[in-house]
From TrEMBL:
SUPFAM superfamilies: EGF/Laminin, S-adenosyl-L-methionine-dependent methyltransferases. Residues 1-22 form the signal peptide. It comes from the Eukaryota. It comes from Triparma laevis f. longispina. Disulfide bonds join 72-89, 91-100. Keywords: Disulfide bond, EGF-like domain, Signal. This is EGF-like domain-containing protein. Residues 64-101 form the EGF-like domain.
Length: 361
């Protein structure tokens, strides 16, 4: 059993992982985001949300927002009032300036009982929320999957993503070895297992970073890593029960990273993008799908889309990220890489494959 809860980990393990991927087995840990652990199903969680609304408060930035081996990027912490993404500060609401040093909070935007207005910024949309707010969304997410039937659905939109990534052809030749591989926010069924099978890829290490992992393994049907290993990758699988905001545990260790339909569910999307960049080796490959929300309507009624998707980030953030940090291999945002139902119900998203630039100069 190679389940790793962040709460069970010690620094020794992290250091080991940086250098050699030594594994550390542990038992079940506490699962993040079980605020309403007594609720039995999605309906009950929704009823609780309806009754209580969602709490919101301050967003916290990390002091260490450095970019490893990238001296040409701004290395500071955006005065702790924003997030540094490859040299540019995206400021939290009410802050402005190159390094978010200017306080303009005269009229602090408010969050309503069920709206996220206090987290909204004109520049980047909602890119970071409070931990409490994330817990509410995450709770709804987990109970939804616990009640899901993957046999009927084949996982979470697997076929949509096969289409969007053109069967993952540009990731590598059939049978290629993807090296140290990470999937972030992989859910119970992952997208990477399908990719590996479709292209007969091999890996050195197969790491999953998912804050709901322990819950999925215990409660969700047909979770592909329920035994702690992925079928066909025994001895190579490592499952880490933590959010992508903890990516800073990994510095330039992965050859390939995948993340599909995750950012809009997270606590701090820009810190995750920064973490992805730092976790990749120079020349490493990023495989990513997300949608961007350039409009933001504060909901007046309980808005399920907003409940499940607290982050609603603008495309300009991603454009900055890939243009500065990556050599682009695939960037498809049009109807041609989406099925018609998805376009109708959710709009289009970005199917991106890129190689981290060797240097940023
Ligand atoms: C819509 S599901 C997609 C799952 C998977 N990527 C797939 O496509 O099958 C979103 C996933 O993001 C995870 N998630 C939520 N917050 C996260 C965070 N801060 N970091 C990483 N993953 C997160 C959720 O637990 C959930 O499993
Ligand atoms: C981060 O920001 C704080 C507050 O502005 C400042 O005191 C600190 O020196 C900064 N640290 C770094 C590494 O830039």
């Amino acid at each position: 059993m190679v389940f790793i809860s962040l709460f069970c980990l010690c620094c020794v393990f992290f250091l080991a992982l940086h250098h050699s991927f030594t594994l550390f087995a542990s038992g079940r840990g506490k699962v993040i985001g079980r605020k309403w652990a007594d609720a039995k199903n999605a309906k009950e969680v929704l009823a609780l949300v309806q009754a209580e609304g969602w709490a919101s408060s301050v967003v916290h930035a990390k002091a260490d927002q450095k970019h490893v081996n990238a001296p040409c990027f701004y290395q500071g912490n955006c005065s702790l009032h924003g997030e540094n993404l490859l040299g540019r500060c995206f400021c939290f609401p009410g802050w402005t300036g190159e390094q978010c040093e200017v306080d303009e909070r005269q009229s602090t935007p408010v969050c309503t009982n069920r709206g996220d207005t206090c987290f909204y910024t004109d520049e980047a949309g909602v890119f970071a929320i409070s931990l409490e707010r994330w817990h509410v969304a995450q709770e709804a997410e987990l109970v939804t999957w616990d009640n899901w039937d993957p046999v009927a659905s084949g996982g979470d939109r697997i076929n949509d993503h096969l289409l969007g990534f053109d069967l993952y052809r540009e990731v590598g030749e059939i049978g290629a070895n993807l090296g140290n591989f990470l999937e972030v926010g992989c859910g119970p069924w992952t997208q990477s297992v399908t990719m590996m099978k479709t292209r007969a890829f091999d890996v050195e290490k197969y790491v999953l970073l998912e804050p709901g992992a322990l819950n999925y393994a215990a409660n969700t049907k047909d979770t592909v890593y329920a035994s702690g290993q992925i079928d066909g990758f025994d001895g190579k699988t490592v499952v880490v029960n933590a959010g992508g905001e903890h990516l800073d545990l990994f510095l330039e260790v992965f050859d390939t990273i995948m993340m599909v339909n995750v950012l809009e569910h997270t606590n701090n999307a820009i810190s995750i993008l920064r973490g992805l960049y730092n976790a990749l080796k120079p020349g490493g490959l990023l495989i990513m799908n997300e949608r961007w929300l350039d409009t933001f309507d504060p909901p007046e009624e309980l808005d399920l889309n907003a409940l499940y998707h607290p982050i609603r980030m603008k495309q300009t953030v991603f454009d900055h990220f890939i243009s500065v940090g990556f050599d682009i291999i695939r960037d498809c945002r049009t109807a041609e890489c989406h099925n018609a139902d998805i376009v109708k119900n959710y709009g289009t998203s970005t199917y991106f494959i890129g190689r981290k630039k060797e240097s940023c100069a």
